[in-house]
Amino acid sequence: MKTMPSVMRLAEKKGRLFSLYEEFERRVAPFRAQAVCVKGCADCCIQVGTVAATTLEGMVIREYLEGWSRPARKAVRQRLHANRREKLTQVFARCAFLDEEQACTVYPVRPFSCRRLYSVKTCGDQGPVIHRRAMALASRTIEVLQDLDPAGCSGHLSFILYLLEKPEFRRAYLQGVWNAENFQELVERYQLTLHTNRSGQGRSSPPVM
Ligand code: SF4
To answer: Which pick of 41, 50, 56, 113 has the fewest CB atoms within 10 Å?
Structure first.
């Protein structure tokens, strides 16, 4: 079957993705031990600008959502639609995956931009404060994540999921042949970073210490 190698490659990439998450979490654990973050605080899901994701991370989240009930999927699609509209006109927008108890409904598959965040001071209006070395580690990990997904792109999570909803994009992406020119309008409107000519990905940078 023609698509089999791509599917297999994708499975391998997903495995590598989670290994990278684990490696990052292990290396930042000493820094994170000083975090003041508490359960129920969702400042970083509401007030930190872009919740960035790669296409590979988007594929993982899509797969996770397939396990949800039809009404739950419909509800999140509506929230993602609203989130896309908000993000086009304002910097901050509550993440579509945050529930009413301020918990992440895709926590096991949340993207790296969520995993890298913590704060050693209560965020408030100032946003999170993160150790400089943890920030540097996160920046290097982002580069590796993008290298892992060379046929893809990065951008705000709801934009990436929107792109992945398009069968023609998904097919081309999985076969490693998608041409940005065919989706130029979306790439520009959503300010996506193509991994072939990447120059950075992520939320607006928090202060460091
Ligand atoms: S994906 Fe989850 S952790 Fe990330 S911003 Fe959304 S609700 Fe928060």
So the answer is: 41
